């Protein structure tokens, strides 16, 4: 038996077959996972960028530690946006009341896939936006810590830039909520 060749029929299928034959509930749950997971990654990345510069700059000016912690809070907000969106999306996933293993033609397949794809795109939109928000807040927070260590009058000016960077996450969750509004899984068969 050679490991380079596959004898099963599954090996002849490509990724397009896997993606087109996946359950709409799978897409919905992947949307929830991507929304939450990528938001946490964005927050962690931003905290890492801000925190490392804050610790380095506080060696020269220990006075900056307490007031520059607000930059870490802005980064953490991106993770909270992901949690909020995950809760909204998880509440939209409903088990069909009359589900059986062999669904007949009276089921609204299009409604299921519409809801699944919509929740997937909603979660992915929120997650990717929050990665961008976390990184941009982290870079602005890093600049805020270093600038504040040099000249304390720069703190408020750079903090305003950081607030605008944090607005990316708010825009992302607004878009995600708008996308998910129409995503409702049918819970009964078509009449």
Helix content: over 70%
Q: Main beta sheet, described?
A: none
Task: Say which CATH homologous superfamily is assigned.
Answer: lithium bound rotor ring of v- atpase
First-to-last CA distance: 53 Å
Low-confidence residue ranges: none
Which architecture would the CATH scheme give at its second level? Up-down Bundle
- CATH fold title: Four Helix Bundle (Hemerythrin (Met), subunit A)
Helix and strand composition category: mainly alpha
Radius of gyration: 23 Å
Report the average pLDDT across residues. 86
- Along the chain, the helix and strand elements come as HHHHHH
Number of domains: 1
- Fraction of residues in β-strands: under 5%
How many DSSP helices? 6
Shape: elongated
Give the beta-strand count. Answer: 0
- CATH class reads Mainly Alpha
Protein name: V-ATPase proteolipid subunit C-like domain-containing protein
Pfam families: ATP-synt_C (PF00137)
Subcellular location: Membrane
Family: Belongs to the V-ATPase proteolipid subunit family.
Characterise this structure.
The structure is a single chain. This protein has helices spanning 15-20, 24-57, 64-67, 69-92, 109-150, 155-180. The termini are far apart. The protein has 191 residues and is an all-alpha fold. The longest helix has 42 residues, at 109-150. The radius of gyration is 23 Å and the shape is elongated. 71% of the residues lie in helices and 0% in strands. It has a single domain (24-94, 110-180), classed as Four Helix Bundle (Hemerythrin (Met), subunit A).
Give the gist of this structure:
This protein is mainly α and 191 residues long.
